[in-house]
Amino acid sequence: MASAVEAPDARISNRHRALFRVSETLISSRDPKELLAVLARELREVVEFDYLSLSVYDENRHQFSLRMFDEHGTPILPPKLALEDTVTWWVYQQQHPLVIPFVDRETRFPVASQLLGKLGIRSLCVLPLTTVHRRLGGLAIGSRDADAYSEDELGFLKLVANQVALALEAAFSHEELQRSEAYLAEGQRLSHVGNWAWDLTSGEIFGSKEFYRIIDFDPGRDKPTEDIFLPLVHPEDRPRVEQQVKEMVATKADRELDFRIVLPGGAVKHIHEVCHAVLNPAGDLVEFIGSFMDVTKRKQDEEALLQAQAELETKNQRLKLLLDVTNQVVSNLELRDLLQAVSASVRQVMDCDGVGIMLPEANGQQLRLHALDFPECQHCGKGEHVVPVQDSPEGTAFRTRQAVVMNHTDSSGVRAAEDTAGCNGIESSCFIPLVSRNRSAGVLLLARLGQSEFNEDDVEFLGQVAGQIAIAVENACAYRQIAELKDQLAQENLYLENEIRTAMNFEEILGESTALLNALQQVETVAPTDSTVLIYGETGTGKELVARAIHDRSTRRPNAFVKLNCAAIPTGLLESELFGHEKGAFTGAISQRIGRFELAHRGTIFLDEIGEIPLELQPKLLRVLQEREFERLGNGRTLRTDARLIAATNRDLAAMVNEQRFRADLFYRLNVFPVRVPPLRERSEDIPLLVRHFAQQFSRRMNKRIDTIPSETLQTLTRYHWPGNIRELQNVIERAVILSTGPVLRVSVSELRERAANGKGSSLRRDTLEDAERKHILSALEDANWVVGGPSGAATRLGLKRSTLQFRMRKLGLSRPSARDGVAT
């Protein structure tokens, strides 16, 4: 997947870089003729074409100045066409790009289509050359291939046309400025400059006609004096001019002044004035004489040129921002680092005080701030900021995929930006949706502390930036998802390999006893549900096998069955095994680890020996059961899991709750559906079946042939108490197969009797008495419908106290076979 997005982005990045270099070369060409000479050669670096034409419109002659080039950049003699027959004239009037995918099918421009056909051009793209000040003409690019210009190519060609238009305007502005300066010099040579004399004795001013024309003054109506002239000076310039005049008089020195005047009609003119002091023979200052020049046109031209240069600089900065974002898309796939770098770049170029990026939460109902660059606010972005998708400007931009702009008069938008950034004083804010493939990936947030508002050009450009950021976010999220899935797959593979190595040697539950069939009936009942199951049973009774049976009969069967023996994991590492950890979360955490609950998502997790979980970890387990969420060690991000829990224990959890060694709320949450697995001594009729199964299994594995099991051996095995249950029986049969040298299974009966003699109690005889006691109590309980106390209860029938009977029931492992009762009644 990475390579699928990398090559196009790298190509885009290279083209934008080339365009940036070409634009710098073009803008440095001050002469329009020189610019046209290098244009075709330079554009070959960024645009593939077989035909290129540049048309500049001349308003005075109502015609295009046309230059044409072939695929090598060599000039072609342009044909003589009427203005109305050209495609460029249509584009110039409409101010919209025009793409002709098949020239031979075009009917709107028959003359131009015929000419292009002779040149072998099969598809054409014509773009207007326009700046904020004027329309210049059009740029036409042709190809010998049909349908050569897609929507993506058209978007890039628009950037090319913008750069060409700015370069042309800069060249024309420079030429006009030079021409205006030449006119000014010629005017001065012909004395088209206002002259004046100021008599310091009388205060009168004598001026030429040109002087009076410039200041729009009628000397026949009023007498010109310094009191009339000074009020014409612009209020902002007047204090400076008055100070300069005082210094000029005091020092009797010549002086040049630049200022503005405001005419009675309101027009403003820029004036350049040269003053010369006139002294009498005694050295006294008697008057000043000077020239008075209207330089308004030159100032306007200079300001226009500076504005064009500033606009070009802004365009270049914004183009560089697009290149930076593109580079980030290609080179940085870590989401948080990517967003932080992009936010800083956008803030600098867009002259903003703060820029942030918000992404949707997994539930799709909230947006969370993932990156914020706000240097003016030291405490901004310290906490978590989440806003609803409904009833918020950010959410509106996200839902509608339309930009939302709020200035200082929109208090709701200002408050929203202040709440998100955590800063007061925001005057203007802008929320741009991150849209890719017609869906929202997040929101770009921009804020300004001053009253400079976001205009349409800002929003249009930010839409392009947001499109690149959306691609970056999708790539980073895809990379992270792939990395997580890859890591999870690796973890699952390791887990499954471990499962293969440690799996029990039999694949199904064997037995026909009533006690086992009752337990399996409960399994059939609870398996199709998603309810939590708590399996009780002694060690070695096959609790894990029952858990697997529940999983295999549930709708979660296609997904993972993940197991963990809580007693086999050190207490300090148990939390990491359950919930996972990040790299560096604790000493020895050299890499990220996926927890068992995360591995079991949409599957089943089996926690064996759950009574061994320490008290301090039990609240986190309870939270997973109730809220379905958890955090990895070393990471505050909340993860969700849809794992069904099956727990198992060989301990009396109810007694542990009374002893405050197990949380009561966790016990009740686990004990939703208890299933008791009977010990082997309660299903003695299943022992012959299990013996035959294990004998066949081990003999096949050891390449031996076991045909006969002596009846004496089966009777001895059936009478044995089996404190280790099925696991002990399995080990005994495996050892017997190893020791048997012929087709008859030889079990060391004497060794088995010795085990019984060294066990709890003394002999097989005692085991038989316990069996008789169990059967007697079980019969009384069944006759009393499992009512322990009361006149008709089992305790009265047996002549025992209620507490004594309950004690014997717990000792013998007897419990009501109902699915909703606990271990003992």
Describe the protein's architecture and organization.
By secondary structure, this protein is of the alpha+beta class. It is built from 27 helices and 26 strands. The strands form 6 sheets. Strands 3-2-1-6-5-4 form a 6-stranded antiparallel sheet, with helices on both faces. A 6-stranded antiparallel sheet has the order 14-13-12-17-16-15. A 5-stranded antiparallel sheet has the order 8-7-11-10-9, sandwiched between helices. The radius of gyration is 46 Å and the shape is elongated.
Total count of strands: 26
Low-confidence stretches: 1-7, 181-192, 500-507, 760-767, 819-825
Order of strands across the biggest sheet? 3-2-1-6-5-4
Largest sheet: 6 strands, antiparallel
Radius of gyration from the CA trace? 46 Å
Which word captures the global form?
elongated
Q: How would you state the average pLDDT, rounded?
A: 79
**How much strand?**
15-25%
Count of separate DSSP helical elements: 27
Roughly how much helix do the residues carry, as a percent range? 40-55%
End-to-end Cα distance, whole Å, is 60 Å
Structural class: alpha+beta
